[in-house]
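Possible regression after last week's pipeline update?

I re-ran a chain I had predicted before the update to compare outputs. Posting the input and the new output here so someone can diff against the archived version. Not blocking, just want to make sure nothing changed silently.
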Amino acid sequence: MKLDLLEIVIPPKLAQEIVEQVQQQTESMLIYQKRYDTDLLAVFAFIPGYTFPRDVFASYPKKLISLEFKRDREVYRLMTTGKPVRELLQTFPWDPGEEWFEGDAQTAYLCLQSLHIPTRQVAWLATCPFIRAWDFQFDLFEKLET
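New output (post-update):
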């Protein structure tokens, strides 16, 4: 699925408030969040063409929030079984510039270079015994059964 991504780095004390505000004021899905020592990284996915209302962050000091928009990303949803996503994807044959975000313990969102996955990546997905499903055409807002 072609998606736009918004990566936000925020102080943990503001995380819940900001995440809730983005979800309430935008048509987005929180696909990843991770706490680091002094910051929290939250990644939201949007259907392409959606204009993000920048005033969502107007009441916060600019130095507290770091934003990065990534437009037109080819995103696949990957569902696993029996092995944590983080451990499993260490062996995935990545190309430069590709990344992934862990949705939960058994779901990941792969951000690849092209809609057409290279043969070595398809082979890895098709032969890995811990891959339950992978899909390019998924409902971003669908609640997953794990």
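Follow-up from reviewer: compared with the archived run. The chain has two domains: 2-71, 73-135. Marking as no regression found.
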